[in-house]
C-alpha cells in the first residue's frame, strides 16, 4: 500500500541508462540476475514467469523489468527485457500517471521537436566499432539476438528502431520491425503492408538501388513508444523521432553512420548499419525449417514468411559494456508500445469532432494494444445520445487495425477491466447494443480474420469490426446510479495508505 520510491529528483531520461536510473529509485521496478542464461529460448522462458503478462501463455504475471548480467557465449554483453511491460512503469519513466499517458502523447504529436545531428566524436553508440570487412565479423558473435521459443525461425532483434530516409524526398521515418538474423552479415526484415519504411524500400528497389538503414537498439522509452505511432496521426514523411523529442523535452540526437549513408540514434546501446538490398528475398526460416516465425502480439506464433527482404549488414557499433534490449512478442511491453500511441491517436481524432465528449481511452492488454479500445464518454445532454457511436466510428478511422470498440460511461474505470465487464453485464443488451461493420481491413496477424473462420470474411486480414455500447441511455441515467459511499480519510486507520 505504501509508495516504494526511494528518493525524489529523478534524472532526466534521455537514453536507456538514465531510464534504468529512474527505475532504480523504486524497489519493485527493476531486478538483476548474475545467473548465466542462454539467449536461445531460455531468457524469454524465464521472463515469461517474472513479468511478461499480456497475451503470453499462462501462467505469467505483471512484474519488474529484468537485466541478465551474464549471457552464455558473450563476455561483455547484458540483456534487458520488460522495460515497458508495465503501464505504471511507463508512467514513472515519463513523470506522469498511467491515466494521463494518452493525453501526454497526444500533446507531443502537436508540439514536435525535430531531431538533431551531432558529431561522431560525441556519439556514445560509436564507442566500439565492428566492420563487416573484419575477418571475424559475425552478427551472432557480437550480439546475443534471442529467440522467444525453441521453434522460432531464428534469433530475432525485437526492439530495433529502424530508421531510413525516403530516397526521393529525404524525409525520415522510424518504425519497429521483425528482424531475423539469417547469416553472419544478413538480417531479414518483415513488413506488415503499408508501413512507411516499406514505401521507402519499394522506391529504392524500383530505382535498382539499396536503401541505407540503421537499427538502433537500447534507446530511451520516448523513442520506443513514439516510433509506434501510425497514420493518419503520423502521415508519410512525419518523423516520429520528433514526437520522442517532445515527450522528453529535448531533441533526439542522431549521428551519421560509419559505413552507410544513414543516421543512427547517437546514444543507443547498439546500432546495426546496413542496406536493404533490391530484388533479393529469403525464406524467413531458411536456417531452421520450422515453418514458424516468432510469437506475435496476439499470442500466437506467426508463420514464417516465404519471401522477405534482406538487410546486408555493413557495420555494428555500440557503447562500452552495452545492454541489448529485447521483448517477448505477446507481452505487455508490446501492449504499451502499441496501445498508448493508439489511445493518443483516438483521443486526437475524437476531440476534433466531439470536443469534451470522450473523457479517456484505454487499449488494454487482452486487446493486444491494437484490436480493442475502451472509450469513456460523458453524455451531458439528451443531444449527446448517439454520439457514442460516432465516437466509435472515429476511433476506427484513427486506427485502421482496431477491431472492437467498447463504450462506457464516465463512472466506469476503463483501466479496471472488472469495472468494464460490470458495465457490459448491467448496461448492455446484445440485440440493441451491438453494431456490426463487416468487410473492413483489419490486421493480418489476427488468425480469426480469415475466410476459413467465417464465410462472411472475403479475404485474409479482413474482419467484422464491432461496437459494444455499454453506456446507459441518457433518458435512463437516474436508474443507473452507483451506490455512493461515505468519503473518509483512510490514513486515520492505516497510516501511509494511498487511495
Give a description of the structure:
The protein has 499 residues and is of the alpha+beta class. The chain has 12 helices and 23 strands. It has helices spanning 16-23, 42-52, 87-94, 101-110, 139-142, 196-206, 221-226, 241-248, 332-353, 387-398, 417-427, 430-433, and strands at residues 30-33, 65-68, 78-81, 116-117, 128-131, 156-157, 160-165, 172-176, 178-183, 186-190, 211-217, 253-256, 263-265, 270-282, 292-295, 301-303, 308-318, 323-326, 358-362, 372-377, 404-409, 434-441, 462-469. Strands 5, 6, 7, 8, 9, 10, 11, 14 and 17 form a 9-stranded antiparallel sheet that branches. α4 crosses α9. The protein is globular, with a radius of gyration of 23 Å. The N and C termini lie close together (9 Å).
- The portion of residues forming beta strands comes to 15-25%
Give the tally of β-strands.
23
What profile does the largest beta sheet have? 9 strands, antiparallel
User: Which structural class matches the secondary elements?
Assistant: alpha+beta
Q: What overall form do the CA principal axes indicate?
A: globular
Evaluate the radius of gyration.
23 Å
> What share of the residues lie within helices?
10-25%
Which residues sit in consecutive blocks of at least 5 with pLDDT less than 50? none
Cα(first) to Cα(last) distance is 9 Å
Overall residue-averaged pLDDT value: 94
The total count of helices amounts to 12
Amino acid at each position: 500500500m505504501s509508495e516504494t520510491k526511494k528518493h525524489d529528483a529523478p534524472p532526466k531520461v534521455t537514453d536507456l541508462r538514465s531510464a534504468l536510473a529512474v527505475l532504480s529509485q523504486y524497489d519493485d521496478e527493476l531486478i538483476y540476475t548474475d545467473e548465466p542464461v542462454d539467449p536461445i529460448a531460455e531468457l524469454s522462458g524465464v521472463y515469461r514467469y517474472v513479468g511478461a503478462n499480456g497475451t503470453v501463455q499462462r501462467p505469467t504475471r505483471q512484474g519488474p523489468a529484468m537485466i541478465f548480467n551474464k549471457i552464455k557465449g558473450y563476455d561483455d554483453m547484458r540483456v534487458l527485457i520488460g522495460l515497458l511491460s508495465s503501464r505504471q512503469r511507463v508512467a514513472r519513466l515519463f513523470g506522469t500517471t498511467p491515466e494521463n499517458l494518452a493525453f501526454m502523447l497526444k500533446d507531443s504529436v502537436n508540439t514536435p521537436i525535430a531531431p538533431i545531428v551531432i558529431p561522431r566524436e560525441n556519439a556514445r553508440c560509436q564507442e566500439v566499432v565492428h566492420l563487416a570487412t573484419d575477418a571475424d565479423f559475425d552478427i551472432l558473435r557480437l550480439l546475443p539476438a534471442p529467440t522467444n521459443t525453441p521453434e522460432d525461425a531464428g534469433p530475432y532483434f525485437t526492439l530495433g528502431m529502424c530508421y531510413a530516409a525516403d530516397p526521393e524526398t529525404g524525409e525520415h521515418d522510424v518504425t519497429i520491425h521483425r528482424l531475423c538474423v539469417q547469416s553472419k552479415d544478413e538480417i531479414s526484415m518483415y513488413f506488415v503492408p503499408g508501413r512507411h519504411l516499406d514505401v521507402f524500400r519499394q522506391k529504392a528497389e524500383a530505382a535498382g538501388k539499396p536503401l541505407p538503414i540503421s537499427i538502433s537498439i537500447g534507446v530511451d522509452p520516448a523513442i520506443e513508444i513514439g516510433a509506434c505511432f501510425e497514420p493518419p496521426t503520423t502521415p508519410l514523411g512525419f518523423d516520429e523521432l520528433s514526437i520522442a523529442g517532445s515527450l522528453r523535452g529535448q531533441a533526439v540526437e542522431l549521428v551519421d553512420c560509419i559505413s552507410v549513408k544513414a543516421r543512427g540514434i547517437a546514444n543507443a546501446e547498439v546500432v546495426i548499419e546496413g542496406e536493404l538490398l533490391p530484388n533479393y528475398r529469403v525464406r524467413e526460416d531458411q536456417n531452421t525449417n520450422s515453418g514458424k516465425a516468432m510469437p506475435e502480439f496476439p499470442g500466437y506464433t506467426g508463420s514464417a514468411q516465404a519471401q522477405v527482404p534482406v538487410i546486408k549488414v555493413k557495420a555494428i557499433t555500440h557503447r562500452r559494456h552495452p545492454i541489448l534490449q529485447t521483448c517477448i512478442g505477446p507481452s505487455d511491453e508490446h501492449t504499451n508500445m502499441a496501445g498508448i500511441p493508439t489511445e493518443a491517436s483516438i483521443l486526437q481524432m475524437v476531440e476534433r469532432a466531439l470536443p469534451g465528449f470522450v473523457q479517456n481511452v484505454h487499449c488494454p492488454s487482452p486487446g493486444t494494444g491494437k484490436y480493442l479500445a475502451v472509450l469513456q464518454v460523458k453524455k451531458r445532454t439528451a443531444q449527446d445520445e448517439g454520439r457514442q457511436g460516432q465516437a466509435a466510428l472515429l476511433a476506427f478511422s484513427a486506427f485502421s487495425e482496431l477491431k472492437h470498440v467498447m463504450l462506457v460511461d464516465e463512472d466506469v474505470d476503463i483501466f479496471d477491466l472488472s469495472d468494464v465487464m460490470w458495465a457490459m453485464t448491467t448496461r448492455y443488451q446484445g440485440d440493441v447494443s451491438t453494431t456490426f461493420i463487416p468487410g473492413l481491413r483489419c490486421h493480418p496477424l489476427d488468425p480469426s480474420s480469415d475466410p476459413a473462420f467465417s464465410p462472411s470474411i472475403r479475404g485474409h486480414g479482413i474482419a467484422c469490426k464491432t461496437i459494444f455500447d455499454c453506456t446507459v441511455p441518457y433518458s435512463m441515467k437516474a436508474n443507473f446510479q452507483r451506490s455512493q459511499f461515505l468519503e473518509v480519510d483512510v490514513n486515520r486507520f492505516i497510516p501511509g495508505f494511498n487511495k
